[in-house]
Amino acid sequence: MRISIDCMKTIVVSLGGSILSTEKGFDVDFSKEIAAMLNGYKDTRFIIATGGGYAAGSYVDSLRGSVDVFSLDEVGMAITKINALALKVILERRVGDVHPIIPDTLGEVRKAAASHRVVVMGGLLEGVTTDADAIIACEATGSNMLINISKTAYVYDKDPKEKGAKRLERLTHDEMIDLAHRYDQRAPRTHFVFDLVASKLAKRSNITVYFTDANMANIKAIIEGRKSEGTVVK
């Protein structure tokens, strides 16, 4: 059974690395938008897990074939923490009560959430994505809600670049697991929109997962329980 840290509502956000880390560098402007959004919900705790994005992809692709897969995971995970640090620096200048340290373990995430309203984290374990880390953070802090932010608001039945890809507005956990099972290859930089481990963990703890894009209006609508653009898994 998951036990809440306190009575404050906790929302975990899996922030896709492609949103923060682009060919042009770290997206400071979007980070400032996140800060403004956080200031609008001071009665809510947020745990934000950042992905690796362009920077991680660049390093991993350069090293692929020269080092083992575990080492690729180590490099990618380190860069997720750099993204987390960059976001944390932006937030703590604009948002009160941001935890000052990027957690290295789920135990540290839980302790940070018990003492601060905003916690920023990167990857925590080689072999899984920050999506899975974010779902486990839900379990560790008693949250039943995860918002997955990426470039595409919706989940599709196959790669949206493929002809005939169908947009999916609602899915059960089992349907999400089926999609992830077909597309998640368990290799660095090759996972589907939500990895298989994350999908199964979301089901076991009955965590509602909201997929949306970086449009702040959509993110706010999800937080407030209003209709928004994106896919819901529950």
Residue share in β-strands: 15-25%
Order of helices and strands: EHEEHEHHHEHEEEEHHEHE
Structural class: alpha/beta
What is the top-level CATH class? Alpha Beta
Low-confidence stretches: none
The value of Rg in angstroms is 17 Å
Give the CATH topology: Carbamate kinase
Task: Please provide a written account of the structure.
The structure is a single chain. By secondary structure, the protein is α/β, with parallel strands linked by helices. α3 (53-63) packs antiparallel against α4, α5 crosses α6 (130-141) and α7 runs antiparallel to α8 (196-204). A hairpin with a 2-residue loop joins β2 (21-22) and β3 (25-26). The chain has helices at 17-20, 28-39, 53-63, 69-92, 106-115, 130-141, 173-183, 196-204, 216-223, and strands at residues 9-15, 21-22, 25-26, 44-50, 118-121, 145-149, 155-156, 167-168, 170-171, 208-212, 231-233. The chain has 9 helices and 11 strands. It has one domain (9-233): 3-Layer(aba) Sandwich (Carbamate kinase), CATH 3.40.1160.10. The two termini are 18 Å apart. The longest helix is centred in the middle third of the chain and has 24 residues, at 69-92. Strands 5-4-1-6-10-11-9 form a 7-stranded mixed sheet, sandwiched between helices. Helix content is 43%, strand content 18%.
Topology (elements, then pairings):
Blueprint: E1 9-15, H1 17-20, E2 21-22, E3 25-26, H2 28-39, E4 44-50, H3 53-63, H4 69-92, H5 106-115, E5 118-121, H6 130-141, E6 145-149, E7 155-156, E8 167-168, E9 170-171, H7 173-183, H8 196-204, E10 208-212, H9 216-223, E11 231-233
Parallel strand pairs: 1-4, 1-6, 4-5, 6-10, 9-11
Antiparallel strand pairs: 2-3, 7-8, 10-11
Helix pairs in contact: 3-4, 5-6, 6-8, 7-8
